[in-house]
Amino acid sequence: MRVFVVLALVAAAAAWPNLGFQSDAGGESDAQKQHDVNFLLHKIYGEIRDSNLKAKADSFDPEADLSHYSDDGAAVQKLMRDLKDHRLLEQKHWFSLFNPRQRQEALMLFDVFIHCKDWDTFVSNAAYFRQRMNEGEFVYALYVAVIHSPLAEHVVLPPLYEVTPHLFTNSEVIEAAYRAKQTQTPGKFQSSFTGTKKNPEQRVAYFGEDIGMNTHHVTWHMEFPFWWQDSYSHHLDRKGENFFWVHHQLTVRFDAERLSNYLDPVELHWDKPIVQGFAPHTTYKYGGQFPSRPDNVDFEDVDGVARIRDLLIIESRIRDAIAHGYIVDKAGNHIDIMNERGIDVLGDVIESSLYSPNVQYYGALHNTAHIVLGRQSDPHGKYALPPGVLEHFETATRDPSFFRLHKYMDNIFKEHKDSLPPYTVEELTFAGVSVDNIAIEGELETYFEDFEYNLINAVDDTEQIADVDISTYVPRLNHKDFDFKIDVSNNRGEEVLATVRIFAWPHLDNNGIKFTFDEGRWNAIELDKFWVKLSGGANHITRKSSESAVTVPDVPSFETLFEKTKEALGGADSGLKDFESATGIPNRFLIPKGNEQGLQFDLVVAVTDGAADAALDGLHENTEFNHYGSHGKYPDNRPHGYPLDRRVPDERVFEDLPNFGHIQVKVFNHGEHIRHT
Ligand SMILES: [Cu+2]
């Protein structure tokens, strides 16, 4: 699946008027930029291994020529002042985005990057500050800058699990990697999921600990940072709604994985104990082990962060706003949320992001909750433990309480969505268009396979001692290829643009009771969305699972990036175009695991008016949009989840709609595991 970024270039360029596109004209090629970024992120804890970049790091003076910055050097002067005053976090120390001062430092560096007018200034600053700032702060700032700066628009970022492997694998594997390095013995080590079979949660650890899903989650938060201000360069379209949707999808998906594994759905509330403990078996590169939490802990106030009472107060203010149908902004004005854009405001409020209209009153429920839950092992700071897994987007989903926390917030969003009027038959109808048949070609079947990735950046090294191959392999979920076959007839007498939306929800709940349509639609997993031109009469649409717009391919490894960049510097096509965004879920992760008997799903297809839905032209020719991407305008005018996002008091409305189809399918998993050889 290729990505939306490609499609949105024009829009993105237009949205960055104050930045120096022109100054970069005739500048560095995409291949050169890719080369620079590869080396800036390689071996992040040691010396820069590219002589050019190393020279820049040693001799560049960030303040020498301020005309290279679109803010006349304001950001770089600010950062340099703190550097010269030795106020910046040391190197070889953990970094957490949820630590206010550490975040401030990382954003000071981002501020420098985003105001560079040309690549040479960008990359020189990157080399310079990599050598002087905390590694975690540097990696974060550079990733976000490459994602958002027009100077880096074709650069493919390496997989974070190879840049900072500590945050993706477990302590046992890291220790083995160090031993291999010390003894100069190549090694491939098996990563296994945390815990034992005595812990039923381990049955779904393959989900929370999937490195591709972790990459999706951390990348999403880099595309839509909660600290984003439009003054950096551009507005992030529907950021708050996106926040709701991306986590809603993770939440419903986790429950579907639980059903696949005979586990009950999850819940959490502040006045009840956290039933599930968690031992992360994960270590910081610098800073020791991630803290563990025993079972059945009662929530405690966290010194310097929040009292549980504060969270309850914020929650009730938000629930009040939902019941009233409006948010009160800073100035006391009412913002109506009883419409399709209400969810966007509410997302900004609940996260909260800097887009929140009143953070003073509604607080930051999500961000505070992450820290409070992350600190439950040491709420009073008695033991000087480093931040918990929940305080990093890379590691948060490893803790089973992540999904419980998000379910709690998802239920608040549901209250809002349920307060909106249901769609009427008139609104849902696409006159003259009917879905005649839906079928799946190929079986919906998942399996596990071992995936290998490089750990060389986990260990310390010097240029004098040659690298040995050190890698790990980890089981991951994949699925067999399948096609959606959708027959649609168009009796409108002319060609017409249509949107095809495909969802599936589990047929039965954990007690074996059939979900009502209204319960099911809230639990619907989005499988695909695309635009198609329907010619008059019968249309037979085939859509491959690999084409899904909600997914992205695997991020290319460092090794592949180095290879492809070399070829591209020699004049060949880099072949990296398809990998420019890593924000969607991995394509291999498209469907839930299912089980031996076949987990039954309701699969629904809604075909709606494509011209009314499309926010951009040419969507039918361009299957390249990834709807999690942040660049430019979001292509769909409809709310995320449409037309299942609102309450359905009478399911006959849908079942009688000609442009809506509904079948039963089963997802199988026969225990197949393709082992590493
Ligand atoms: Cu998140």
UniProtKB/TrEMBL annotation:
Occurrences of domain Tyrosinase copper-binding (ranges): 399-410
Alphabetical UniProt keywords: Signal
Cited InterPro entries: Di-copper_centre_dom_sf, Hemocyanin/hexamerin, Hemocyanin/hexamerin_mid_dom, Hemocyanin_C, Hemocyanin_C_sf, Hemocyanin_N, Hemocyanin_N_sf, Ig_E-set
Signal sequence extent: 1-15
Family note: Belongs to the tyrosinase family. Hemocyanin subfamily.
Protein name: Hemocyanin
One annotated GO molecular function: oxidoreductase activity
Entry-linked PANTHER family: FAT-BODY PROTEIN 1-RELATED (PTHR11511:SF5), LARVAL STORAGE PROTEIN/PHENOLOXIDASE (PTHR11511)
